[in-house]
Write a structure and sequence with these properties.
By secondary structure, the chain is mainly β. The protein has one domain: Porin (Beta Barrel), CATH 2.40.160. The two termini are 33 Å apart.
Length: 356
């Protein structure tokens, strides 16, 4: 018991310090690789993103790598999200338990969008027929194991790549998660830090320019314009889950998570899940971010009061359902999540998981 508490405290201190240091030098909306903040798995998203202490399916690859240590079967997951503005976010992952040696997993996230017309000062409508594309990719390797009979620990090493037109940016990041079972009935706590890594910067393509050499206009020298580096969206999560009802044919679980971003205000997530006979599930959740006073730059509101009244958050109510069924010697589940947004279009997410 004492060993479990000590290990948990060490990881908590590391997570809070890592996210807090980054936050001291970051402002709202200043980090890049924003696709890393898009939640994965319909089950988690229909619970308002409150999931790190209740993660018991393959979407734990994203939410809390520590939870994988409880897996007894191989699991394959595919999740699709129709994000805003015709952007699609796809996630695929595989989990393989290795007994006492722990559990390993691999995953990949791909956010893509259609081709767009190239516009210039001379051709603002893009009638020249040239197109460009953009995408974001993250590939991860996860390892998880039981540290004690109550404490699980997991880590994910991620390779991140973003590209727009012919310019690319590459980097690495680390996710660290813990799951602690208190021993008091079903109460468990979790901590996760996501996307801890160095800043990324774009290189190549149109960043390379040719300029006349000093003293001789006929000779041109190629140089690369320096793009500004951007930090990763480091995220620190704390969560607690408890089974309000736990019978063989009926189970209800509630979870509350607190989220600290390095590029936004703190957020609270609440979710509840009801499972009937381990076949059918209903879920609901809510994401809450307290409204904060924000000071605008004078150039943005010239001649006006530079203080806004309050910020307005977009995310809110979520809901979803799930269905499990047997396919021979395999188990399959299909989950759906609906996410309502105040200013942007509502988002639908679909997830398929196969366990064998």
């Amino acid at each position: 018991m004492k060993k479990s508490v000590k290990l948990l405290m060490i990881v908590l201190i590391f997570g809070w310090t890592a996210s807090g240091v980054q936050a001291q030098f970051s402002k709202v909306g200043t980090s890049g690789a924003q696709f890393l903040k898009i939640g994965v798995g319909s089950r988690a998203m229909s619970m308002g993103g409150a999931f790190i202490a209740n993660a018991s399916d393959a979407s734990a690859l994203y939410w809390n790598p520590a939870a994988l240590s409880t897996f007894a079967e191989n699991s394959l997951i595919f999740s699709y999200t129709n994000w805003f503005a015709d952007v699609a976010n796809n996630f695929v992952g595989f989990v393989a338990p290795m007994g006492a040696a722990g559990t390993i997993g691999i995953s990949a996230t791909y956010l893509g969008m259609g081709k767009m017309l190239v516009t210039t000062v001379d051709d603002p409508e893009g009638t020249n027929g040239f197109h460009f594309g953009a995408y974001s990719l993250a590939a991860g390797f996860t390892y998880s194991r039981n540290m004690t009979d109550r404490l699980q620990l997991g880590v994910t090493l991620k390779y991140i790549r973003e590209a727009i037109w012919d310019m690319t940016s590459n980097g690495f990041a680390l996710d660290v998660g813990t799951l602690y079972r208190t021993g008091f009935r079903s109460l468990r706590f979790a901590m996760v830090i996501q996307n801890f890594g160095r800043s990324m910067v774009f290189h190549g393509g149109h960043l390379y320019q040719k300029i006349p050499r000093f003293g001789n206009d006929k000779i041109r020298t190629t140089f690369e314009m320096g793009a500004s580096p951007y930090p990763l969206p480091i995220t620190f999560r704390l969560g607690a889950a408890y089974d309000l009802i736990d019978f063989p044919a009926s189970k209800m679980t509630m979870e509350i998570d607190g989220v600290h971003w390095n590029d936004n205000f703190e957020q609270g997530n609440f979710g509840v899940e009801y499972i009937w006979n381990n076949l059918f599930s209903l879920r609901a959740g809510y994401s809450y971010m307290p409204e904060q006073p924000v000071k605008w730059l004078p150039i943005e509101r010239k001649g006006q009061n530079n203080w806004t009244t309050r910020t307005h958050t977009d995310a809110g109510f979520t809901a979803g359902l799930g269905l499990k069924y047997n396919l021979g010697g395999m188990k399959a589940s299909f989950d759906y999540a609906y996410n309502a947004y105040r200013f942007l279009n509502d988002v639908n997410q679909f997830t398929f998981i196969l366990s064998f």
